[in-house]
Structure formats: structure tokens, C-alpha cells
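Hey team,

Filing this mostly as a record. A colleague (T.K.) asked me to run one chain through the structure pipeline before their review meeting, and I want the input and output archived in the tracker in case anyone asks later how it was produced. No errors, nothing strange. Just documentation.

Input sequence:
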Amino acid sequence: MGDLLQYVPGALSASFAVSIIVVLVLGTITGIIVGALPGLGTVLGLVMALPFTYAMDPATAIALLLAMYVSSIYGGSISAILINVPGTPQSAASVFDGYPMAQRGDGALALGFATIASFFGGIFSLIVLVLVAPVLARVALEFGPIETFALIVFALTTIAWVSSGEMLKGLLSATLGLFLSLIGPDSMSGDIRFHFGNLFLSAGLTVIPLLIGFFAISEILYQAGTLKDAATPAVKGGGFRVPPWSQWRPRIVTLLRSSAIGSFIGVLPGTGAAAAVFVSYADAKRRAPDPDTYGKGEPSGLIASEASNNAVSGGAMVPMLSLGIPGDGGTVVLMGALIIHGVIPGVRLFAQQPDLVTQIFVLLVFANVFMLFIGGAGASVFSRLLAIPATLLMPLVFMMSVVGAFAIRSNPIDLAVIAIFGLIGLVLRLNRFPPAPIIIGFVLGQPLEVSLRQGLILTDRDFLAFFQQPIALGLFVITGLILLNLFGLGRWVRRVCRRLAIERQ
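Output structure:
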């Protein structure tokens, strides 16, 4: 932490640049809209914005994406409160008390609670990020190729957590992503692999067309095939009203505890905000003096949900920045964006680019402040946007996705890539194959291969020597324990041990 303080004045000065402020405003407005409109969500919004960051410098591109990341999580609460439909999965618990408040005429007050709780949770998690990430980064400086390989193997366990209960299908999706990462030139020898005689494939695949195809195009096709009711939803109220201190005072402990829960769950790779909000909501209800009021318009339930889901945003960036482990779909896209702009998250980032890391921290503060003021000032406008029917929204998303993909290189082949992988993504989605593991496998595939081959060179092709390195061995053990638990083998071992203990008696 102390090492980064010297870069704070420069980061503040750079962050007040006109270009940064403009993209923060645009990113915040766009993020809130993307979050508020059901059917879009954080990941899809980031994917649509990613191609437009290609011509930006790294700091400006990061500012835009961070603003969208933070504000889209908050934006989901607007539709959850006013039309009883969470705009993002992170706001799933906000409907329990937010919509009943809107039904009784307190929609503006509910949006006030949600906005301020989201801001507080985001700032709380940023403090956690600033304190924890540099410590992890200093430990990570001891990593060589063998330790890096063990870390990436551990990172691949996040596939199971983002697979929505379909672990086998998630593993198959990740295998597809790993294969796609092998297409093109070998990073160590330069040999061209798996190009199938196609000149375009000989250069390999890039992450943006894959993201747009798997997330944006497949989502558009899925909604086009499943949309049954295009009627305009009924919006209950709107506006923004700051809750008085008398209503905050008895709920401060809930605000703090939910922010801490969200930050902790965010640090755990692959857990995500959807899990955090239900854990926080259940904890708040369990500790409440009158739990029967929850689900009937209790502000504490709304505070617990919104503080925790925004706290996850900063917490999830801890493993992403310091270890290169993407914790959820949003951080997968952010990690891909950083790599595109020459910023490699992981073990060397804090040592090699401390000025940029410090600016990321400062930009996160700015993003949360802009979310607070723009969210409050524009609540009435954002509420009216909920009346846009999906039949108008999805064609607009499709147009932006296609234009964004083509604008990167002006190469028609990229349009073919997003179309092909959009169809593949639709087939996978219809068969309940999660798309996020594909991108995780693609992003981690190349560093996994390089670290493995470098480690084998160091050990004279003796893979067992990997287990003689203390840090790598510890990571392999942790990975093994996680896999045992995920596959239920841990419970089987405990049953066997209990049976043997009974027999001995």
C-alpha cells in the first residue's frame, strides 16, 4: 500500500483529464441503462462497449469499462424496484422489498436507499481492494513458470463455480475455450497450428469477436426465439428521494455487514454477486428484530442486497488484478480488455505498472461517485426507459454489436466469426452449456501452455518436479481439495472414514 501512495498525485492528475471525465460520464449513463433494461446486463454491456475502446489509450478504455461495470450492477435495482424484474442477476434479491415499497408509493425512497447503499458498498470494497491486492501481488512476485502454472490450474477451478450447477457442461465448454486459444501461431516456436488451411485462422482468434458472438449475438438470438410478450411493462413510480438519517441510523450495521459480506465473497474467485446478495439478505433477515417485515417492503432488505452486490465489484478485482484469476463474467471481460491494451493482470502487474494500478484504484472511486450523482439525478429519466419493449431494444443491441465488431479491424471475417460463434453460443445456451467457461478457457489457455512448457524446460521434462516447489505444491493441494469437494468425493471420503471408525469400535 505504501509503495502505491507515491503514485496517487499523478493518478489523480491523470484522472481529471477531460477525456477521462467524459468517458466516465458516458460509461456511467450507459452502464445504468444497460443494467436497468432487463435482458442486457453487465457482461453484455461490457462486451458491446469493448470494441469501441480499441482506439483509446489504456487509461481511458479502463475508465469507460470500470464505470459501466460499477453502474450496471446498480442499474439492475431500478427495474427490480419499479417493475419487479431484476435488470441483472445481481439485483435478484432487490425485488423482495424494493417492489413492495414502490407499490405502496415509496419508489423514490427505495431508489434512494438502493443508490446510496450501492455507493457505500462500492467504496467499502475498494478499500478492501487497496489493502488486500498489493499484499497478494507481493507474494505473487515469488512466482516462476512452475508456480504460475499451478496458479492457472487453480484459476481454472472457477469454471465449476460459474457453470450454474452444470459442472460437466462447464468443463466441456472450458475445453472448447482452451482449444480455441491454441489456434494460430505457437507463442514459443512460431509454428502455425490448427489453421485448417485458412489464412485468417493462421493469425489466431481474438477475444472481442468471441465475446460478442458468445455473449451478445447468442443472447439476441435466444431472446428472439423465446420472447412471448412484447407488451410495455407497468412502471411503479420513479424519481429519487434521499432517505432521512432517522431511517438510516438503525440500519447502519446492516449496511456495514452486507458490504463486508459482499467484499469477502467477491474476493473468492467464481462466487459472484448473485450468491452474495442472497447470503447478505438471509443474514440481514436472520439478525432482524422483526424478520416478518422482510419481503413486504423492509428497507433493510433492499440495503442488504444493494450494498453487497456492489461490494462484490471491488472484491472480484482483487484476484483478477493481483493473480490474473477472473472471478465472474464481468471480470472476464475486464481482464480481456486489459490484455487487449497491453496490461497483463497477474503476478507482475503491481511491480511493472504500479502507476496504472494506482490509477485503476482512483478511477474506481470516480466511477462510484459518478454512479451516486448521475443515478440520483437521472432516476426519473432512467425509470422511463423501462417502457422500451424488447422488440425495439434487441435490434439496437444487434446493430451496436455488429458495428463494434467490424470497427476493430474493418475486416469482414470478424463478422463471420461473431455470426458463427453466435450460433454456436445459442446451441450451447439451449443445451444449458454456460458461455463464461469458454472465455475463461480461451483467456487462460495461452498462459497455461506457456508456463507448462517453460516449467518442463526448467525441470528437464520432469513434471513430478513441479510438486517439489513449495508454493506450487500448496496450490496443487488447494486445487485438489476444491475438486474433491466439487465432485462430492469429500463427502464420500468422510462416510468411508466414519464407517471404518465404527467398525474399529
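Quick notes for T.K.: The chain has 24 helices and two strands. The chain has a mean pLDDT of 78.
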